[in-house]
Sequence to fold (306 residues):
Amino acid sequence: MTLILFVEQCLNGVQLGLMLFLLAAGLTLVFGIMDMINLAHGSLYMIGAYLAATVIEATGSFLLGAGAAMIGTGLIGAALEVSLFRQLYRRSHLNQVLATFALILIANETVRMIWGAQPILLNMPEALAGPVEPVEGFRYPAYRLAVIAVGAAVALLLYVMVVHTRLGMRVRAGASDRDMANVMGVDTRRLFTLVFAIGAGLCALAGAMLGPILAVQVGMGENILILAFVVIVIGGIGSIRGALVGALLVGLIDTAGRAFLPGLLRHVFPPTIASEAGPALASILIYVLMASVLYFRPRGLFPARG
Fold:
């Protein structure tokens, strides 16, 4: 293993982690403030990716496509919160799971009817299509660096919003004690709608940014939703800081495991078995991390609820 390969995989892990953070940030706020299990969160990620692909194809502008996807998906999220999710807040978690699972099926079939079943590959901006050489001998895709920069900027903006603004104060109050926040005069209905719209918009941004790296296809939100739930369990429900730390840990472990475990296993197993077992073990390590965190810190690393 060379130093260049190690640095490259670390950057890939940070990039994956920051994109997971975009999904987990909205999910952890919805779960922490509203006590709402939303399995359809990944469907908003999928819808955002398709909206971005449509606008980019029509206009040729990646920035316009990403912005339109965020606005459109945010409005869809707000409409879903007002029309459906408000009816589920006081229901049992089982009812929430069943209702949002039905939304997954509806979203998948709707997307299939509108865009078809064939995957779509987004074109990345021409200015970011090639590699850059930050240091001599190390070349890295410019687009992936841009993804890291965008993810880091969004993480910083969310931190500033949650910690240093009146909206953030209300969000933290709702995540810590929703009933007390309501008694103290916080308009929780309006707050819930806004938080849901922000979470949906962040999903759309993640879908647009990952579109040129991963295929945009029906059902793309399900697998990444599982990782997003792992992230919020590790980080702590309702915690933006926890979501960021958990996402980076998951991204680094998953990427490093898939890159390096097959080579290590070849010292013990035949190459074919090692190549198959490496990625599987990388996924297992993520759940081992989650189980370890739950054992030592049952409420996560940085829980919002006290």
